[in-house]
Amino acid sequence: MDAGLDGSGGTFRYGHVYYRVISDNLVEFTIEAAFTRKVDTAYSYGTAQDGFAQLGDEITMTGRETPEFDFGDNNILRKLKIEITSYSVSENFVFGKLVVPHKYATPNNGGNPWLAKFTGCCRYSKLLNNADNPWELTAQVDLSRASASPKVSLLPIISVPMEPDMVTSNGLPMVTIPATITDAGSLPPKSPKT
After folding, report:
1. What domain range is 89 assigned to?
2. How many domains in the chain?
3. Per-residue pLDDT averaged across 65-85, rounded?
C-alpha cells in the first residue's frame, strides 16, 4: 500500500498556512492540516486504544508525494511532523499543527512577496472535486507590508447548494466568506479565485 493512501486513495482533507512576525525578518509559520486517521502505515500509528493517533500524539505527514514546506527562499522543510490537536474515531480524521520559525535574509523577495508553499499528494479520495490530486497551500510573505497573514477560523468543509442566483458566470457555485486582518497594516482586500 502506498504511504499516505488508504484503500481508496488520498488522505489529505484540509490544510491552512499562516505566519506572524517574531522579530525583524524572523517569522513563525503554522501549518494546520487534517488527514484520514486510520491509514495502514507506521506514520499514522499512535497511542489510542485502536493503535492510531489521538490527542497529543505526533505523526509524520505522508503521501504519494511526501508533504513538504517550501519557505520560498530556496529553503525546504521535509518530513513534517504534526502534533494532533483533535481527532474523531467515527469520522476517521486527525487534525494537527506544526509550528516552525524561519528567518528570511530580507523582508521580501526583491519587492515581491516570498511565496511559502505547503505541498503534497494526495487529496482525500471521497472529495467531489480534485480527489486523489496534489495540493498546494500558499502564504505570501512581505514583511515590509504585514506583520502577520490572515488566519482561517471557519470549518474546513462547507456545503454549497447549487442555487440559480448564487452561481458565477462560468457556472460554478459562489461562496462569500467574511474575513478580517488584525494587526497586518492596511492591506487591500483581494478578490477570491473561483
Report:
1. 5-148
2. 1
3. 95
